[in-house]
Design a protein that fits this description.
The chain has three helices and no strands. The protein has about 90 residues and is mostly helical. It has one domain. The mean pLDDT is about 90.
């Protein structure tokens, strides 16, 4: 490991705590499910609850995992860096 990678590794923020991660997941999941329900609600209403849930989960999980969670992790890193510069 060279000096640059050692410095980068030492300045990298710690992973989110359980509580931070729970909040981040909620911030991603709730709006995603709300939008999907508003957009697909009339079509999904004719389906059984299990099939409706399956379809919502199949659409929502990739949106949350690949689209929203990386953005929330970046935002968290920016907030931590900003707090570090102030303090």
């Amino acid at each position: 490991m060279n000096a640059t990678s050692a410095t980068a590794a030492s300045t990298r923020p710690a992973p989110p705590t359980k509580h931070q991660l729970a909040l981040m997941i909620w911030l991603a999941v709730f709006p995603t499910l709300t939008v999907l329900n508003l957009a697909l609600g009339s079509w999904l209403s004719t389906l059984s609850p299990v099939l409706r849930t399956f379809i919502l989960a199949t659409v929502a999980v990739p949106i949350v995992i690949y689209g929203l969670m990386p953005q929330l992790h970046r935002l968290r890193m920016m907030l931590i860096a900003r707090a570090g510069r102030r303090g």
